[in-house]
Amino acid sequence: MAVTRRLLVGIVGLVSLLVYLMAAYVGYVLLLPVWNSRPSPLLAALVILGTAIVLGILNYWAATAQLKRSLDAVELSRTRAPELHRRLDGLVDQMDVDTPTLLLAELPVPNAFAIGGGAGAIVLDRRLFQLLSPAEFEALLGHELAHLETRDALVQTVAYSLVQTLVGLVGLVLFPIVVLVGGVARSLALVRGDPSSWSRSWLGRTQRYSLQVVAGLGFAVTLLILSYSRRRELAADDRAVEVTGNPVGLARALVKIEQASKPDPGLLRQLYVHGETDSNLSRLLSTHPPMDERIQRLQERVQGNSMRARELSNDRR
Fold first, then answer.
1. What is the domain partition of the chain in residue ranges?
2. What's this model's pTM, rounded to 2 decimal places?
3. pLDDT in the model for residue 305
4. Residue 314 — very low, low, confident or very high, per pLDDT cuts 50/70/90?
5. Which residues partner with 112 through β-bridges?
6. Rg (the chain; Cα; Å)
């Protein structure tokens, strides 16, 4: 009985192997004309790059429009907040950005974020008007204008689109090989009468390593984009200090927002001016640097300005 069962398993394995080899041959025959008529590598790369960029831009505009609709925000007119608009105009005059629309919304936590392209918009939670002083509010606006000035959200969305395209192409190239290698490994294991041994064979390990390469590539490039996002947050802080000359105001605004925020702001977390982190891994996967790091950098700016002021005062004596 055992011999009969093993013989049947071997026959199934042999048939399975023939099916996989036949499928590989058919795929080769079908793809050969496509390969022979392929465009130049440069042209193919340009087409792929251009398509990824266009899709990224379209995705960005669609996501922005959907976000605006979901916020149920209202425009904050000049008549309702003349002082805030006056400060906004002063910042815009110093920066390479059009005047954005100010939108008032009920966010999960007191916060602000910039959305859209062109002039864009800055979404403000209503509670910020009770939390922040005018100078602190101005520093916060400077931070969000810095994001609009360099189109950070658009750049990151396009970057994610490029990553998805790259990983998808690698996966597309490896998929037939992975399927063939895995199928042959399983078929040979059946022929040997030991179906579970396929994953321990060199063919099984090759399939596993190929899948790990695709996953690792996507993860590594995603980490690079997240790292870029954190650097842009710090750059926005620096730009806000540059145009306002008030690192203390921005530091105080961040402290107040952090103290008033709840642990789970929901799906809008990555858009906010801060990102809370609980571990090294969460910091690595965060779009924002730790709040304490940002505040410390601003405090160092204050101390540096104080030292330069004292040195200048001593030089004048």
1. 1-34+41-317
2. 0.74
3. 61
4. very low
5. 124
6. 28
Distance of alpha carbon 20 from alpha carbon 16, whole angstroms = 6
Nearest by Cα to 183 from 198, 173, 194, 200: 198
Question: CA 198 to CA 278: how far, in whole Å?
Answer: 41
Asked if residues 117 and 60 have their Cβ atoms less than 8 Å apart, the reply is: yes
| Residue 32 vs residues 19, 35, 216: alpha-carbon distances, Å | 20, 5, 30
Distance separating alpha carbons of residues 160 and 281, to the nearest angstrom: 20
Residues 6+ apart with CB under 8 A from 205: 199
Each residue of 118-167: pLDDT tens digit? 568 999 999 999 999 999 999 999 999 999 999 888 888 888 888 878 87
Instruction: Kindly tell me the number of DSSP H helices and DSSP E strands found in the chain.
Output: 10, 4
The answer to whether 65 touches 121, Cβ cutoff 8 Å, is no
CB-based contacts of 242: which residues, under 8 Å, 6+ apart?
Answer: none
